[in-house]
Amino acid sequence: MEHYNMNLTLKVWRQKNKNDQGRFETLQAKNISSEMSFLEMFDVVNEGLINEGKEPIAFDHDCREGICGMCSMHINGRAHGPWDGTTTCQLHMRAFKDGDTITVEPWRAGAFPVIKDLTVDRSAFDRIIEAGGYISVNTGNAQDANCIPVDKTKADLAFAAAACIGCGACVAACKNSSAMLFVSAKVSQLALLPQGHPEKQSRALNMVAQMDKEGFGSCTNTGACEAECPKEISLTNIARLNREFIGAGLSSEK
């Protein structure tokens, strides 16, 4: 793989807080290695800004291993950038060429207000999980791994749904700012397993109600969420959520 250095022009969204109007600021990223990650490139740019006595770019990051879902950025109009199935922290600068102009924005959704620059408040996802994205169990010794038989096909589907990292790319990519892919993944990973059955009805109803309360839009099945999801969560989870929600509504006590 060829290694090369490049000079880039960055158009980065700068915003002091959610009440600030915000603006794009043009910055130069010089002598950037093609082997750097996108966040490492930002580290270099921020070091330069700090040395010049300027305010560094605020952006979210944690593990930098594609696991935590913190690195939420729109890069040239795509959530997490040009590579499919990749988080921003795992996007490498070899995806770009010398002289490129890169536009970087935060997630654009009413339920994700901007905290500063590229950092948004995604605590709405936390409140959706608190509404029902868990199972209630008695504490004590852990049960034997083989004491509850689980169908292999359902276990695989639950594992695929559990791969969701809650980054919010599905919301950012959706024209309606819908959180259906996120909610459906969190519902599916529990609804498919026997441990999640006792609370399946209340889970679907409560999580959807909280999603609506947070101000996320409706799903119109355009598929943008699946296309931009870094973990490639399937749209079939949305169909499952709809079945769970309708079934819970029909069978719940009035």
TrEMBL record:
In this chain the 4Fe-4S ferredoxin-type domain maps to 155-185
Note the Pfam families from the entry: Fer2_3, Fer4_8
PROSITE patterns of this UniProt entry?
A: 2FE2S_FER_1, 4FE4S_FER_2
Names of required cofactors: [2Fe-2S] cluster; [3Fe-4S] cluster
Recorded hits in InterPro entries, A to Z, give: 2Fe-2S_ferredoxin-like_sf, 2Fe2S_fd_BS, 4Fe4S_Fe-S-bd, Beta-grasp_dom_sf, Helical_ferredxn, SDH/FRD_Iron-Sulfur, Succ_DH/fum_Rdtase_N
Q: Which family does it belong to?
A: Belongs to the succinate dehydrogenase/fumarate reductase iron-sulfur protein family.
Its protein name is Succinate dehydrogenase/fumarate reductase iron-sulfur subunit
Q: Which organism is it from?
A: Chitinophaga hostae
Q: What is the lineage of its organism?
A: Bacteria, Pseudomonadati, Bacteroidota, Chitinophagia, Chitinophagales
